[in-house]
Design a protein that fits this description.
It is built from nine helices and two strands.
Length: about 230
C-alpha cells in the first residue's frame, strides 16, 4: 500500500506529459530514441531542445494527487495509515465516534507506538547495519529506551528499581539524567547529610551445650541431687 501510494502521488497513475509530432508518423524505434533523449534531459533538470515540428504539452499537474484523495474521500487517519503513522500522533481526528483509543498515560502510548510502528523499522536497520557495515561478531543495537519517554515520576521509579536490584550503578543512573560522576566533595557531602545505616551486629553462636536464647538453662548436678532428695 505504501509503494502504491508513493507511486500514485509521484506519477498520478497516468503519463505526466505527451510528446507529439504533427509532421510525420513516428515509428516505435524512433519514438524510443526520442523518449530516451527526453528522459535524459528532464530527469537531470536540463532543457529538452527540439526542432520546430515538435510540441510539448502538459497533461497532468500537481492537482492530480489532490483529486485522487478527494475522489476516495480520504481523511487524515486514512492518509496517515499509508505512511505507518498513527493519526493521533499528528493530531488527526479519528473517523466516526468509535475510532478513538484512550491510554492511561503517555508511557503506554509511546510504548504502543514503539512496538507496533517503529519496532519493525528498528529491527530491520539493526540487522542490515550489523550485517553490512560491521565485522563479526560486532553488531548494531539502537537505544530504543531513548524513544520511550516517560514522565519524571515513572522514570525515577524505574531508575531506583534498577539501582536496588543492582542492575546499574550510581554513576550509570546519574548519566541517564545527564549528570556527571560524583566528585570527592560530593561524596563527602552525601555521606555527611545522608550517612549510611550501620548493619546490625551478628549474634554470636551459642556454646556447645548452652541453651538457645529464650530457653531455660539445664539444671546442674547439685540441683538434680537436691531435687531427688526432696
Amino acid at each position: 500500500m505504501q509503494q502504491f501510494a508513493l507511486k500514485w502521488f509521484g506519477q498520478g497513475g497516468v503519463p505526466r506529459a505527451r510528446l507529439t509530432n504533427t509532421q510525420r508518423e513516428i515509428k516505435p524505434e524512433v519514438a524510443t530514441v526520442i523518449k530516451d533523449r527526453w528522459r535524459a534531459s528532464v530527469e537531470g533538470g536540463d532543457l529538452f531542445v527540439t526542432g520546430n515540428d515538435w510540441s510539448y504539452d502538459l497533461i497532468q499537474a500537481e492537482q492530480a494527487g489532490m483529486e485522487w484523495v478527494e475522489g476516495r474521500k480520504l481523511a487524515v487517519p486514512e492518509i496517515a495509515r499509508y505512511f505507518g503513522c498513527p493519526a493521533d500522533m499528528i493530531d488527526g481526528a479519528a473517523s466516526g465516534g468509535g475510532g478513538q483509543i484512550n491510554y492511561a498515560n503517555i508511557t503506554q502510548r509511546n510504548l504502543q507506538f514503539l512496538i507496533h510502528h517503529l519496532g519493525p523499522a528498528v529491527i530491520r536497520r539493526e540487522h542490515n547495519w550489523s550485517r553490512g557495515l560491521l565485522p563479526q561478531p560486532q553488531y548494531v543495537k539502537l537505544n530504543t529506551d531513548a524513544l520511550l519517554r516517560m514522565d519524571p515520576e515513572t522514570r525515577e521509579k524505574t531508575i531506583r528499581s534498577q539501582l536496588e536490584s543492582k542492575q546499574i550503578t550510581v554513576t550509570e543512573a546519574r548519566a541517564l539524567n545527564n549528570r556527571p560522576k560524583y566528585t570527592k566533595a560530593q561524596e563527602d557531602e552525601v555521606e555527611k547529610y545522608f550517612p549510611a545505616k550501620k548493619a546490625a551486629p551478628t549474634p554470636k553462636a551459642p556454646k556447645p551445650g548452652a541453651p538457645a536464647p529464650g530457653e531455660p538453662m539445664a539444671p546442674t548436678e547439685d540441683q538434680q541431687a537436691e531435687r531427688s532428695a526432696r
